[in-house]
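Morning run. Coffee first, then this:
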Amino acid sequence: MTTKITIDAKNKKLGRVATEAAVVLMGKDSPTFRKNKPADVKLEVINASKISLDEVKAKNTTHMTYSGYPGGEKILTSKELIAKKGYEALFINAIKGMLPTNKLRAVMLKNLTITE
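And here it is:
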């Protein structure tokens, strides 16, 4: 039985919402938590565009992607990332960094939906 959980991001900091989302996606808040099994939960983050984001952090925080080819490194600030890909990419990047780096990470991220 899948449980559906909603997190409202309005007037909250990005890191606080990402931490809460990562805990739910891993299943650490459930009494049936097991490290080797993904949690049976669907998570929805609403009001993503209404987060409390400081101007200084938006300009100074960088997000790097690498294609694997020489010269394929792209570095964007948070402000540029929001302008190019939207708030959803910012949230996915933050939550992905808080999940364990193993085979279950992609499975956990499939249970995440973000609405602006």
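The two ends are 27 Å apart (CA to CA). Good start to the day.
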